[in-house]
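Cont'd.
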Amino acid sequence: MEIIEKIKINKSIDNQTEIQKICLDKLQSSPLPNPRSEQWRLSNKSKLTNFLDYSVNENNSKFDIPYPKNSQSTIRLIIGENCQSKLIEKNYSIQQLSEDELKKYIKEQISFFNQNENWSDLLNLSLSCKNNILGFKINGSKIPPIEIFSHASSNSLSAKTLIIFLEKNCNVELLQVNLGEDNSSLSQSTFFCLEENSSLNHGVVSYGLNKSNLLNSLNVIQQKNSEYNLGSLHFKFNYARFEIRIKQSEGNAKTNIKGMQITKKDEQISTYTKIDFDGPNGFLDQINKSLADDKSHAIFEGSIIVPKIAQKTDASQLSRNLLLSNLAQIDTKPQLEIIADDVKCKHGATISQLNEEELFYMRTRGITLTEASKLQLSSYFQEIISFIPVSKDRWDLLDKLLNEN
Amino acid sequence: MVNENLVKDVVKEPYKYGFVTDIETEKIAKGLNEDIVRLISQKKEEPKFLLDFRIKAFKKWQKMKEPDWATLGYKEIDYQDIIYYSAPKQKEKISSLDEVDPKLLETFDKLGIPLTEQKKLTNVAVDAVFDSVSIATTFREELAEHGVIFCSISEAVKNHADLIEKYLGTVVPASDNYFAALNSAVFSDGSFVYIPKGVNCPMDLSSYFRINSGDSGQFERTLIIAEESSSVSYLEGCTAPMFDTNTLHAAVVELIALDDASIKYSTVQNWYAGDEEGIGGIFNFVTKRGKCLGKRSKISWSQVETGSAITWKYPSCLLLGEESVGEFYSVALTNNLQQADTGTKMIHIGPKTKSTIVSKGISAGKSKNSYRGLVKMGRKATGSRNYSQCDSMLIGDQASANTFPYIKSQQPNSEIEHEASTCRISEDQLFYLQSRGIEFEEAVSMMVSGFCRDVFNQLPMEFAAEADKLLALKLEGSVG
């Protein structure tokens, strides 16, 4: 773990920025997360070590975008490549955040960080160089869809950071794509701040190649009357960890999350979510699906926190899991922590394999077992994929998933 | 509109078992070391294997750390400030109940436990444990006719040492956890039940645990063995006096069910919970586990947890035998500053095993009530099933209800279903009941009772009535 050794002696980065300094200081005393803590106890230690085995690469190489651009109106950004963007049109503006604005916001966020819970963010911010931080604020209306790519090249570790402020009353569709090449590690931290009455349809597709690793963290603050919809899909990573932290800072906000992770071979993909309701009348509808095959391991841990102030919260969380092999395993832990009494909160979890009765029904009608399984899987996948914005018409994720199954 | 204060008043209820029995007791010095462990063993005239078991457990305990993962906050326990053995002084050997100290009989009478001959009509055999020792076991002769052994564990050590040596610590090993290790080192008494092959125990068996002294801990150990095709229903009740200090209770219960055997274990736990400011009360750290060893064996836990300042308890089932069944039905009511972290573990190891979990938590006052459960499907548990349901009810906006279900599956041909919900007492339903002339207090009580119905239905008759009454009492207050 070259990186950790360097962090310990504080020599990981030359020309450290102020933010990097703060994060490195925080990491120095305990550079690795506590493997016995709830957030990390199931994480495969050797895979995490492997993640940290590559040296940091601040330069970005070219890569192929996995699907064609739809129209001129789509805004396509690649973190690390074209960070200098400023778009001011008649109806809307997308403006880069100034260095001071960035610094102020990140510093504020760091002050709330917990060493274990936000370890991925601390690592990201201590390794992410100036060029790999993309921050902008969006306002206006009729904003075209936005696509943002993060990419890690072979035999290296890349750290990319994305910060977006959605100003009052604006609606945005945004697709974030994380791509990992063979033998690579990608650390991606994303921070969103949704102001009053804004809405964001956010898609996250993380697609890795052989022996690629990913630490993907997503921090969202929702002000009142904002709406945040997330559709996510993680697959083909040797080791991937998706951390979602959402805070409804004043309540009265809506959050919808539909996520899926698919693991094969000896991969481990996990999703950790924490939803904080810091005000009344919050709404959450969350579904997380996992599919584990071969010798793989899929993990979901979701917590919903409803303090006394969050009266009339309506939250539901569902974890649905398909276990397809004798050697695979699934861990799931949906949890509720509630103090307010006038709330509706529920969660559910299921683990099973494909429904045998449905398979039998289809086979009696002449559909082969393989086809019948595919049909069942496609309906299982479709619910999530149709929720991922921007890409759904052009990137045939469903085909990709089914044909590789 | 529900008046919050009214509901709060309703859930206040004084503890009616808080009296102290003034009886001469034999106590040993405070503190815990190897000599104390030897002294306890010596006082109980135990064979060498048991002393070795205790010493080994004590050594393990010394190396262990108190667990801190539960969402419980309590002041540090000083293990050297506890008396590990306390027994009421009585004549050397009791041959009949008439020789039991009348003060003790009176105590159990006050608690509503029928020990005296004339009250033995309820057809429940009772083993009464007072502080560290068992003082009486009723209906022994009748049970012996069927070959059923029901006695205190100290007696079993003397008379059935082979069974104790064979089974003690096989379900909950001494090194299982911090409190189990402590119990294994210093356990003083408890109950022992052995149901021979093919016998359906003719009556319900019951243990009644009473803590009387404020400075001694209670460490009882229960071992139940059900041989092939046998069945037994076992009930357990607990109370303690009111003290300003916290008393430690660390028990271990081990159940073993062989082929086609069934054990039903029901608990109504009503230890003293401390006062409204959270002063005093029992710290209840209990390890209960059942092993379904045989094919088609069944272990069913039902519990009503209303007492204790701190409850840390996870009655579990190890489902090893093919087609074995585990069940867990629980109601946990917390009030004032009580904290409960309770749930179950269902470990599916054998094929075609089934488990059901129904947990109802009610939190009132400033209390904390958490469900923590584990369902695990091992690689060989093909065709196994689990269904879990955890409902929480919150009364007042200062209480908290948490749900932490850990679900792990390594077997594709198995199914796990879990659901949980949280709600409050519905204003509409309260209004409906009140508009039909039902008093507010009774309406709340009816709704709580209805909320717990799934669990109460699983309790034996005597206990169901007691549990219902207990909850109603807890909810009875100054309204009206």
